[in-house]
Structure formats: C-alpha cells, structure tokens
Amino acid sequence: AEAEFLSLVEEAGSSSLVQEVERKFLGKGGVVSMLSREITELDAEGKREFGRRIGSLRKLIEGLAGERQRALRQLETERSEIEEKIDLSEFLFRLNTPRLGSLHLVTQAREELEDIFLGMGYVVAEGPEVETEWHNFEALNIPKFHPARDGQDSFFIDAPEGKDGALLLRTHTSPMQIRLMQTQELPIYAVIPGKVFRRDTPDARHTPNFHQIEGLVVDKGITMAHLSATISTFTKAYFGSNFESRLRPAYFPFTEPSAEFEITCAICLGSGCRTCSSTGWIELGGCGMVHPNVFHSVGVDPEIYSGFAFGFGIDRLVQMKHAIEDMRVFLENDVRFLSQFKGVQ
Ligand code: PHE
C-alpha cells in the first residue's frame, strides 16, 4: 500500500489530485481503513504490531501528501501570477492604431504671426468670408468698373442683392479694415488673418483660395515711418534678425501713398538666385497709408486721424520660409507632406 501511495502521489500533477489520492487512502472506505479490517484476524501481539504499522502508514501518507500539496500549490500560484499578469506598459503597434495629427503648416504660421503682432500690442480679429460688394470694394475706394476689380476676379454668390450690393467670397482681408473702423473705438491696432478667394487658375504660386493677414493701425500722428518700422520688426521676428525689408512704390486704391514690401530672399539670403530673379528680394505684400476716401466711407476724420494698412499672403510666406516649390500641396491634404511639418514653427 505504501509503494502504491508513493507512486500515485508522485504522478498527481496538481494539488487537488493529491487531495484525491489522500482521500483514496485515508478516507472512509479508503485503502487504509480496508486494511484495518484485517486486524480482527490477528492475535493480541499481531494487533499491536499491525496497529503501529497502520498508524505510521497514516502519518507517512498525511505527511507526504501535505508536503506535496504545499509544493504544488506554490507552483500553481506562481504560474497563475505569470499567466494573469497584465502589462500596462506594453505597446502594441497595429495598423489601425490612431496616429497623432498636427496643425496644418499654414495654421501654424498663422498662429505664429498672431503671436508676433500680439507681442507688439495688436489685437487679433476675424471677419466673414462671404462679404458684400460694398465692404470688399466700394468702401475701399474701388468703385464699380474700376480696373482694380479685374485683378481680384471674384466668386459671386447666387443670392439677391442687399443694400450693400451683391454677395461674394472676399477677395482680400481688407474689408475687415472697414468693419473694424465701423465698430471699434479709435485708436485701432489690429491684425486680421483669414481665408480669401480669387478666380485664379491654380499653379505653383497661385491657388483659388489662400490665406492673408491684414494689419490696420488708426491713431493720431501715424506716419509711413511707423509702417516701415512695423514691417521690418515683423520680418526679423518671423524670419530672423538677418532678414531685411524694404518698401517700393506701388498702387492700391485704398492706400495713398501705397507700397509693395519686399524682404530678403530666404533661398539665397540676398545674394541673388532664380527664385528672386537675381535681385536678392522677394515681394511679400502690399501696404500704405489709409486713403482719405476710406476714412470718409466709415466716418473717420482724416484731419484728426491717420493710419496704415498692410496685407500679405500667409501661404506665400510659408512657401518662402520652407522653400516649398508648389503651393498646391497646401490644399491637397496629403499626409506624407503634412506630417513633415509636425510642430514646425
Ligand atoms: N488687399 C491687398 C491685396 O490683397 C493688400 C493690401 C492690404 C494693400 C492693405 C495695401 C494695404 O493685394
């Protein structure tokens, strides 16, 4: 019986099986109690001897079974700890794992521009993308049939005309000059970033919708020198202190005098290359002193107040800063392009 027990306990692979074996030997009707029955057939001496042996067999079985059970239990807890462990730090890469997006390159530039002007004490304003003909043209001293309208070929909205004329997608951010002067107390120091739309055939340097940032300052005693210094300060803040800006005479109906402003070519840093036609300068936008007719259209007295305005394309600025050959990539939303500019300032 002892040998049989030993081999069975050895075989039992789990603590519950050991328990079963123990029961089979020590339990009611088990092997040991069956053996005990034989005691009746023995004489007194034999009974004592037999009883001792049964007793030590019991002890042996209990002892071994207990030992084996403890050992197996420990193994079992160890195994379940391993099997049930959850590794919260584990990273499983799957194709459908969501990837982190980022702001569009143009949005990043727009926010950086806003910061620069906020730092100079300006406020940031936004305006409607659908404008009236009056705000977009007439109030800015561009009457009907003025040739300047041709340069800003417009998308008109198929809607009945109101008192301010037809509706159109704004062709520049300048109508916000009008809206600000109509609604804000003077003085005004504001920049207005936003989308603008023109019926251009898309090419490397034109897309039918793009972004501009407009600046408007109206105060007492504002001169062209303030305008020039402001543009120079912005140029250095955005591109770096080695960048210069300059003004060249130009014409806009809503400013007088008017200028185009140019900055150091970012490709050749002023030494001359194909991009800047060997001049070392790249034209960025338009600017000038607010035209008296514009002040009249919003009821500001040009004898008391003067001001300057400027406007330029944000997309063009980004194109220059990152030497992006074709502007159309801004609108194509190809992540292979966009993901190259995650967090670029
Ligand atoms: N609105 C002009 C344009 O879109 C730029 C400009 C703004 C010029 C303000 C002068 C003053 O071309």
Helices, strands, pairings?
Layout: H1 2-11, H2 15-26, H3 31-37, H4 44-83, H5 105-119, E1 123-124, E2 130-132, H6 133-136, E3 167-169, H7 175-183, E4 188-197, E5 209-219, H8 224-239, E6 245-252, E7 255-264, E8 281-290, H9 292-297, E9 306-313, H10 314-321, H11 329-332, H12 335-338
Parallel strand pairs: 1-4
Antiparallel strand pairs: 2-3, 4-5, 5-9, 6-7, 7-8, 8-9
Helix pairs in contact: 1-4, 2-4, 5-10
The site of phenylalanine has 12 residues, from strand 8 and strand 9.
Can you describe this structure?
It catalyses: tRNA(Phe) + L-phenylalanine + ATP = L-phenylalanyl-tRNA(Phe) + AMP + diphosphate + H(+). Tetramer of two alpha and two beta subunits. One of its GO terms (molecular function) is ATP binding. This protein has about 350 residues and is of the alpha+beta class. It is built from twelve helices and nine strands. The protein has a seven-stranded mixed β-sheet, sandwiched between helices. Strands 2-3 form a two-stranded antiparallel ribbon. A hairpin with a 2-residue loop joins strand 6 and strand 7. The longest helix has about 40 residues. It starts with a helix and ends in a 7-residue tail after the last helix. The relative contact order is 0.10. The model has no long low-confidence stretch (mean pLDDT about 90). Bound molecules: phenylalanine.
Total count of helical runs of at least 4 residues: 12
Largest sheet report: 7 strands, mixed
Spatially, the strands of the biggest sheet line up as 1-4-5-9-8-7-6
Poorly predicted runs are: none
- Average pLDDT taken over every residue: 90
**Rg over alpha carbons:** 44 Å
- Which ligands accompany this protein? phenylalanine
Q: What is the CA-CA span between the terminal residues?
A: 85 Å
What coarse outline follows from CA principal-axis ratios? rod-shaped
Helix content: 25-40%
> What class, by secondary structure content?
alpha+beta
Relative strand content: 15-25%
Work out the number of β strands. 9
Protein name: Phenylalanine--tRNA ligase alpha subunit
EC number: 6.1.1.20
Family: Belongs to the class-II aminoacyl-tRNA synthetase family. Phe-tRNA synthetase alpha subunit type 1 subfamily.
GO molecular function, one term: magnesium ion binding
